[in-house]
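2024-03-11 09:14:02 DEBUG pipeline.ingest accepted 1 chain
2024-03-11 09:14:02 DEBUG pipeline.ingest length=268
2024-03-11 09:14:03 DEBUG pipeline.predict start
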Amino acid sequence: MDKSQHVVAEMDRLLSRYQASLQMGLWVGTETDCLYAYHSQQRFPAASIIKLAVYRYYLQQVQQHQFCLDQAVEIATQQFVAGAGILTHLPERKKWQLKELLRLMLVVSDNTATNVLIDFVGLSVIQASLTSPDICLARYMMKPEQNKENQVTAAASARLLRECLALESILQISPSFLAKQQFQEGLPGLLAEADLPGLQIYNKTGRLHLIEHDVACFELHQQRIYLAGLSYDKKGTGQGIMWLREVGQIVYDYLLSDSPPVQVDAKR
């Protein structure tokens, strides 16, 4: 059994263990190939994963010289919302640079920053940029609306992260806004605090009641693997976070080998 087949076998065993308690969507692959997929086209409530779609939109606009990362954006009092982030604790500061809001949206998953960025161009404008049906931006953060939910698939989540990192490289954004995230309990959860020389982690989490999502890129020895795990806890057991961590460990063990990634059709 080669290393890629070993990954498939390990993922199959892992999914079977959590099948009773979790609804799962998973995609693992390289820049060009899928190594493993399970219900990767199934839509889930996006939680904060949708912020990657907002980030990609702005990076595309900066690339096209429609916006400048240094330009000022003003926050109105009515735009402050609860939930994750720090802007609600800094209401006295009304003007922020675009790049600051983007960084806050990603690094600390700031909901106010996200809504301000959506408002800056309009929800419908960002919606129009999402040409793929597997990504849906339907509402603002912390503002639930009946029959409106942001949605995403595991495959689309991985693609969003890959495209955001590629655009950061083109725009020479360094360090990446997706590196050194505040929330690394998911896919990097067994790795982030360990001393693992050479491992670079980029990720974005998404959490709601009974929802544990994470999308990440692990880079080691000039090889990159993209992975996206979406989960819904059917029984309220809290096992979603542990499933994500075990997925991350399997992928890291694969990367640690010297064998280059080889495409494997998981037939999912």
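2024-03-11 09:14:41 DEBUG pipeline.report The chain has one domain: 3-256.
2024-03-11 09:14:41 DEBUG pipeline.predict end
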